[in-house]
Design goal:
279 residues; 6-stranded antiparallel sheet; globular
């Protein structure tokens, strides 16, 4: 009953007016607009006021604010799969599992986040991904877009596959998978960089959506695991979502998110300073 009540409160944020969620740091010497920071430890539904939240029990998935597994504070965001949506991941209709709140910065007074920016979040994933004929199982921790519409036509995602390694997806372009660096079994013989399921894991994602010189990097517990060029973006992070987004054939699984931070930075060097903090 507590979990149901918490989700009801969380879902009610759909009808609340959009709040001014971006906090500002001091102005950089370059004269650019003040740097912004978004913070949420999933303690309060107001962090997502006015943004779309996937309704309960749709997409064979559910979500709530939870107390049973927490990294920071009193609550985390918990999402879980109720059952498979299809027998394969290649059905005629795209039918992934979805259970998450979105961040729609284009709806705020400040608009989208300027990139480059650094995204940090703690995740706990309990799922078994299977290799299948056709498309194997996948789980996506984060989706980012420079598209301000509901179409989300150009996305960059952070996924894990049955091989157990975190990777950027849709890089350099949409549907591409080409990397500057990607951790794999071939270059990580002892598996030190494989994703540690059923543990709290810190993920850091550097995003530069520059239209001509875009690129992205992902670190897992402060170790680089994926890096790629990014094309087709427009310099701004307009929307994002975290939580549960996974392929259709997965029959069960649970993910927890906690302690989310998004920070505008001047350069990758500034992002590295954040990477080395104790967030």
């Amino acid at each position: 009953m507590i979990m149901f009540r918490l989700f009801t409160i969380f879902f009610a944020s759909l009808v609340l007016s959009c709040s001014n969620i971006g906090s500002s740091a001091s102005s950089p010497s370059s004269g650019n607009p003040p740097l912004r920071t978004f913070l949420s430890s999933f303690e309060n539904q107001n962090d997502f006021s006015g943004f779309y939240i996937v309704p309960a029990d749709q997409y064979a998935s559910n979500q709530t604010l939870a107390t049973d597994k927490v990294y920071d504070g009193a609550y985390s965001h918990k999402a879980w799969i109720l059952g498979p949506r299809d027998t394969t991941n290649d059905g005629p209709v795209y039918s992934p599992h979805r259970a998450y709140p979105t961040l729609q910065f284009q709806k705020t007074a400040e608009g989208g986040f300027r990139t480059p920016c650094m995204v940090s979040i703690w995740v706990y994933l309990d799922v078994t991904l299977q290799s299948r004929s056709g498309t194997s199982d996948w789980f996506s921790f984060a989706t980012f877009t420079s598209d301000s519409s509901d179409a989300w036509t150009r996305t960059v995602t952070v996924n894990v596959n049955p091989d157990g390694y975190i990777r950027l997806v849709h890089v350099p372009g949409q549907t591409d998978q080409q990397y500057l660096y990607q951790a794999t079994r071939s270059n990580d013989a002892n598996g030190a960089l494989s994703f540690p399921y059923r543990n709290w894991v810190r993920l850091d994602v550097f995003l530069n959506f520059d239209a001509t010189n875009g690129y992205a990097k992902v670190w897992q517990n402060k170790q680089l695991v994926s890096s790629a060029l990014v094309t087709g973006t427009a310099g701004i992070l307009e929307q994002a979502h975290f939580g549960l987004y996974a392929s259709a054939a997965i029959g069960s699984g649970t993910v927890y998110n906690d302690k989310l931070r998004i920070v505008e930075v001047e350069s990758e060097n500034d992002a590295i300073k954040l990477l080395n903090d104790n967030w």
